[in-house]
């Protein structure tokens, strides 16, 4: 969107669509990352202490 705006003017509807798409993509990746961390944490709770990774 920044590159397209630098080249010329953007139609407001295209700009809004790009903002919504970009925000949705960012939110989706963050939710996926958080869900993966929760899943891994819950899986590690069931492991014996000797098999867990130390921090």
Structural class: mainly alpha
Span of the ends, CA to CA: 40 Å
Which sheet architecture does the biggest sheet show?
A: none
Total count of helical runs of at least 4 residues? 2
Helical fraction: over 70%
Which regions have little confidence, pLDDT < 50, spanning 5+ residues?
none
Order of helices and strands: HH
Q: What structural keywords apply?
A:
single chain, 55 residues, mainly alpha, 2 helices
Describe the structure.
- By secondary structure, the chain is mostly helical.
- The protein contains 2 helices and no strands.
- It has helices at 2-7, 12-45.
- The chain starts with a helix and ends in a 10-residue tail after the last helix.
- The mean pLDDT is 84.
Short synopsis of the structure:
The chain has about 55 residues and is an all-alpha fold. It has helices spanning about 1-5, 10-45. The chain is rod-shaped.
């Amino acid at each position: 969107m920044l590159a397209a705006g630098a080249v010329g003017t953007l139609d407001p509807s295209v700009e809004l669509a790009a903002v919504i798409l970009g925000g949705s993509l960012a939110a989706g990746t963050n939710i996926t990352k958080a869900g993966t961390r929760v899943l891994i944490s819950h899986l590690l709770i069931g492991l014996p202490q000797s098999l867990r990774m130390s921090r």
